[in-house]
Amino acid sequence: MSEIELKFLLDEMSSKALLMRLKALKMVAARRVAFRSVYLDTTEHVLKKAGITLRIRRDGRRWIQTVKTKGKIHGGLSQVGEVENPAPGGRVRLDAIPDPSIREAILRHVNDAPLLPVCETVIKRSTYEVSLEDGTRAELAIDAGVVGAGERSAELHEAEIELLEGDATGLFDIARKLFPEGGLQFSELSKLKLRYAVEFFAPLFRSKRLDHFLKRLKRLQTVFGSLNDAATVRNMFAAPEVPGVGHPAAQRAIGWILGASQARAEFNWSKARALWRDLQRDPPVLEMRRTG
Fold it and tell me: What CATH number belongs to 2-203?
């Protein structure tokens, strides 16, 4: 199975704003769920290196095993391969993966090495069905939760618009409908990648100093993220393989995203120098522990 979707990074404020927008549009969540997911890999992270994600998720009383393969991203649209199968008792069943090519690839990479938990997420998800007059249907999922790696954790807020029926270009029109103010940042960061970053750097620093530093770094990261979006999004949408080239509705949606990303970048750039000075005042590198 292949998914076509748009994913956007949110913060707590923009997540609340989206929920208010949905309420104003008189849209009611079709489903609200809370689930726990455990991501697995070998000690050498062979699945990560191969672009494969293996997950066990508890949804209600069921445990589901999911495998995702590395997707293609064009103009913010991502296409991800995904297969699922039941996992009774939360036990990994590589031999039960329904797609033979994916099953053989995982077995080859793992090569009988033990699979260990490398990340755990606890997410509350609200899902909505969104449609357009041309028949395009999509599912909107709003996630809010925590990604944990050892003793460290990070909050996660994300919105995902997945195509159910119709033309993929309709996803941009739906995004414009849901986020009329613009200012969106595409999400190419999986929960597992976030875990690897948290786990890799956490042992180097004292907890209290690191927490203050990460708060400052997050603000500066937002600035550079918006600058990067503005610098690359034009090339992304100019690529010949982007769906909807020459389609009037798609071009209007693309123009909206271009304008919003540029305005957001200019606003954030005005704060960059002050944020950088603030970040330099108390770097946690001074607190690095000796490891040798």
Answer: 2.40.320.10
Is the separation of the CB atoms in 44 and 213 below 8 Å? no
Distances (CA, A) of 31 to 34, 125, 139: 10, 8, 11
H/E element holding 277?
helix 272-280
pLDDT tens digits, residue range 135-184? Answer: 889 999 999 998 887 777 778 888 999 989 888 778 888 888 888 766 56
3-state secondary structure of 28: coil
Give residue 30's identity as a one-letter amino acid code.
A
pLDDT bucket at 100, cuts 50 / 70 / 90: very high
CA-CA-CA-CA dihedral for 221, 224, 226, 230, to nearest 10: -160
Secondary structure letter of residue 11 according to DSSP: -
Q: How far apart are alpha carbons 225 and 237 in whole angstroms?
A: 17
Residue extents of the structural domains in the chain = 2-203
